[in-house]
Amino acid sequence: MNNNGGIPSRCWCGKGIVTYVSKTEENPYRRFFRCEIGLKRKKEQHLFKWVDEAVLDEIQRMDEQQSRFAEEIEDMRSSLKQIVEEEVIKHTNSGHVGCVGTILSLLCLCSKSD
Ligand SMILES: [Zn+2]
């Protein structure tokens, strides 16, 4: 189980995670995730994670994910622009732009007729 992967859902042993509240003097009322088995078998290294640290991890992970998404969107946008430009060039060469030209001149005529 990766302990740095944000909010944990399961311990490496397969057991679910329970949230407890710390009663120690160093961390009073601080909430933590703990494997149920780990609580009984303290000698074994079962999952333990402070809730606040897990939430911070999660936020950081989402932040990284978001900037990755933003990059992907930017990539898509530029490739889409390229595709559109290529299509426009293709259509310009094959004479399809005549249609657009006709519409444009009609618009010109309409705006002048007053
Ligand atoms: Zn465990």
Question: Keyphrases for this structure?
Answer:
3 helices, GRF-type domain-containing protein, 114 residues, 3-stranded antiparallel β-sheet, binds zinc ion
- Helicity, in percent? 55-70%
List the uncertain runs: none
Q: Biggest sheet, strands in spatial order?
A: 1-2-3
Please write the string of helix (H) and strand (E) elements.
EEHEHH
**Total count of helical runs of at least 4 residues:** 3
Helix and strand composition category: mainly alpha
Oligomer: single chain
Give the radius of gyration: 30 Å
Count of individual domains = 1
Alpha-carbon distance between the termini? 76 Å
DSSP summary, beta strand count: 3
Q: What fraction of the residues are assigned to beta strands by DSSP?
A: 5-15%
Shape: rod-shaped
In this structure, how is the largest beta sheet organized?
A: 3 strands, antiparallel
Q: Identify every distinct bound molecule in the structure, by name, code or SMILES.
A: zinc ion
Mean pLDDT: 87
Fold and architecture overview:
- The structure is a single chain.
- The model has no long low-confidence stretch (mean pLDDT 87).
- It is rod-shaped and about 85 Å long.
- Helix content is 56%, strand content 11%.
- Strands 1-2-3 form a 3-stranded antiparallel beta sheet.
- The protein contains 3 helices and 3 strands; from the N terminus they run ββαβαα.
- With 114 residues, the chain is mostly helical.
- The protein has one domain (17-112).
- The structure holds zinc ion (ZN).
- Zinc ion is lined by residues 11, 13, 15, 35, 37-38, 46-47.
